[in-house]
Write a structure and sequence with these properties.
about 475 residues, 4-stranded mixed beta sheet, globular, mainly alpha
Length: about 475
């Protein structure tokens, strides 16, 4: 699987697979800065570690983090499934085959694959969800002392929140896992001390957010919200910029998304995968911890994806598809168990055939997710830098243009003479203050923080207006603006 990811990994900054945030994340990690809300402190720390690997471009090294996280998530799914299928559970069905089916179903699904080859936070989020499922699995719970288990679960959850706050949707698993069922009798036994320990370790993991104000104190070039102040910290970590998009869809649009998600589910695994997944989740359902947890994750994240009014809300389905991948493995295992009662050879062959089917299916998805040839962002950035006159003010509109210029200007330290301004951010006090620190010669007033006001106050500088919608929009005046 890692080989597949490396073959399709973006070699540099990429907009493939709706990944326009890459420039922001790479630049924030490389410069000790702050990424867009909610800040992603753990991701930035890990990304910086990958950026120190001495291979490829800065963006390529950051892209590697997504690929490694996806592979580790698939590996944990494998262990979760074989743990669930006890040796006596499906007597004639090899557990490792079911685990392999689930791991490949997840890792080769186009949505997961698409995020594994670019700079984004979603495969790392999937890794943490898989890790939580692994830590509450029977094998780990039985072989680990309760105090140590509480430490690992709490710390994992807290750190995971430092990557993506939607991990909070898994909190019922953390609070009501098998740790609170008496090992001898199997009856419900709520251990308050264990709960308190987990909460304490969650708090310890959440301390990673304290790195945000520490980063802000160094006045980095990318400093979203300037969390060195309490108000700035609150604005950043609560995602205030995006709160109005939560459950903001009309019923008609929600219904449209339900249809889209159903189609997307088939697109991930095909009709055979859909059927095996439904069998694993419904036909072979048993009142087990894994079934209950995976059902919760599937519906919780599906509801989030349905209600979040953003164009890329589909990426929040990755945890839901993680659950469905587990069901596919359980469905194949259950079917193989039934078939093996008549023929062991046919039963085992069925699992192998389905693994082969997943690889064949991935071939049809290759072009859809392949980021190895996407050079749009790199070409756009280089074209802007080539056309901008000396000492130009470059007004970048839209995430693609803004984050690409940040990557080239701040992370790669190219064209130190120009000024890069995001007009969409000028109404924020923290952004204007950041511009003043970055460009002392630039005139920025608070009276009328608009593009025209900045242009007029710095009329001796040439200007460029750039955007990227369906194609590059680069309008650079050949003379200072009047």
């Amino acid at each position: 699987m890692l080989g597949v990811y490396l073959k399709t990994l973006a070699p540099g900054l990429s907009w493939a697979n709706d990944g326009s945030d890459g420039g922001d994340l790479i630049t924030a990690a490389a410069t000790g800065g702050l990424a867009h809300p909610t800040g992603y402190p753990l991701y930035l720390i890990l990304a910086r570690g990958f950026q120190l690997i001495p291979i490829g471009s800065l963006a390529f090294r950051t892209n590697l983090l997504s690929a490694v996280a996806a592979v580790l998530a698939a590996l944990l799914i494998y262990f979760v499934v074989i743990d669930h299928l006890s040796p006596s559970g499906v007597e004639k069905s090899p557990r490792w085959l079911a685990g392999l089916v689930s791991a490949y179903a997840f890792g080769l699904s186009p949505l997961v694959w698409s995020q594994a080859v670019i700079t984004e936070v979603y495969t790392l989020n999937a890794f943490f969800i898989a890790l939580i499922l692994f830590l509450v699995s029977n094998t780990v719970a039985q072989k680990t002392k309760q105090k140590n288990l509480d430490l690992m679960l709490g710390l994992t959850f807290g750190l995971a929140a430092g990557n993506h706050v939607t991990i909070i949707l898994t909190s019922p698993i953390l609070l009501f896992s098998k740790a609170f069922v008496h090992a001898a009798t199997g009856k419900w036994h709520y251990d308050a001390r264990s709960l308190y320990r987990r909460i304490a370790w969650i708090g310890t993991g959440l301390l990673v957010y304290l790195t945000l104000p520490l980063r802000a104190f160094s006045k980095p070039p990318v400093n979203w919200g300037n969390p060195s102040t309490f108000e700035g910290f609150k604005w950043l970590v609560t995602g205030q910029l995006y709160q109005d998009q939560i459950f903001a869809l009309t019923p008609a649009l929600v219904l449209e998304r339900v249809r889209a998600i159903a189609g997307l589910l088939i697109g991930q695994f095909g009709i055979p995968g859909l059927l095996f997944g439904l069998m694993g989740g419904i036909v072979f359902y048993k009142r087990s911890q894994l079934h209950q947890q995976s059902i919760w994750i599937f519906f919780a994240y599906s509801v989030l994806a349905l209600g979040y009014a953003a164009f890329d809300s589909f990426v929040y389905l990755i945890p839901a598809f993680l659950s469905f991948s587990i069901w596919i493995g359980l469905g194949v295992s259950g079917t193989v168990g039934l078939v093996s009662q008549k023929s062991q050879r046919i039963g085992n062959s069925l699992s192998i055939i389905f693994v082969v089917y997943l690889f064949v299916l991935s071939g049809s998805h290759w072009r859809q997710v392949d980021a190895s040839r996407d050079t749009r962002a790199e070409s756009f950035g280089k074209e802007v830098l080539a056309e901008a006159q000396e000492d130009s003010i470059v007004f970048a509109k839209g995430d693609k243009a803004i984050f690409t210029m940040w990557y080239f200007h701040f992370a790669l330290h190219q064209r130190a003479d120009i000024v890069v301004i995001a007009p969409d951010l000028l109404h924020f006090d923290w952004y204007r203050e950041s511009l003043r620190l970055l460009y002392p010669q630039l005139v920025i007033t608070d009276a009328e923080p608009t593009l025209d006001a900045v242009k007029a106050a710095n009329h001796k500088r040439p200007v460029c207006f750039i955007d990227y919608i369906l194609d590059a929009i680069i309008d650079c005046a050949p003379y200072p603006n009047p």
